[in-house]
Specification:
This protein is mainly alpha-helical and 182 residues long. The protein has helices at 21-43, 46-62, 73-96, 113-124, 127-138, 143-150, 154-181; strands spanning 10-13, 16-19. Strand 1 (10-13) and strand 2 (16-19) form a beta hairpin. It is globular, with a radius of gyration of 18 Å.
Length: 182
């Protein structure tokens, strides 16, 4: 909930500004679905994305008094969720060998074919390029903010975006060619 007048209530602590319970609730309500969609685009598994975002919010709750609302707590949560997804994927790869992440459980409605093609193409990009492309084009995060969030120079982000877009264009063209041949 926002404070009267539409302001977000913050707590001032010895460590700086933090989020009070109402501000944290507003952050959760306003960003959970968006973060799940973003992490899903990065990892390709909706249930895993939900779990990772939920876990990231649990961790954020424990740190809410030190999360500065001016320093994009949503970006912090997205970064934690992404790292959780990567860690879980690596753990699963070690435990099960190569997992077939493309299998959907029975009973789900079929998704839009163009989204499936985009997700398949995104999965073929190197993880750093995929993350940059998703953050910039699907999450509308600026190049500078991606650099801060990922801990790399702006030039590296620009190179990842350029290479990722080029690879995506080629992959999506291949998908279109296969559709017209079939």
């Amino acid at each position: 909930m926002a404070a009267p007048g539409g302001l977000v209530a913050v707590t001032v602590t010895a460590h700086g500004r933090g989020l009070d319970v109402d501000a944290f609730d507003a952050l959760y309500a306003g960003s959970f679905k968006r973060l799940v969609a973003q992490i899903y685009a990065m990892c390709g598994n909706f249930a895993e994305a939900q779990d990772c975002v939920q876990e990231a919010f649990v961790r954020a709750w424990d740190r809410r008094r030190s999360l500065d609302p001016d320093q994009s707590p949503e970006a912090w949560i997205r970064t934690v969720a992404y790292r959780l997804a990567v860690s879980r994927w690596r753990r699963a790869q070690r435990a099960l060998g190569l997992a077939d992440r493309s299998q959907l459980p029975d009973g789900l409605a079929e998704p839009d074919p163009s989204r499936l093609e985009l997700l398949r193409a995104l999965r073929q990009l190197p993880p750093d390029q995929r993350r940059a492309v998703v953050l910039h084009h699907l999450c509308d995060v600026s190049v500078r903010d991606i650099a801060v969030e990922t801990g790399v120079p702006v030039g590296t982000v620009k190179a990842r975006l350029s290479r990722g877009r080029t690879a995506l264009a080629a992959l999506l063209t291949i998908c279109e060619d296969e559709e017209t041949d079939g």
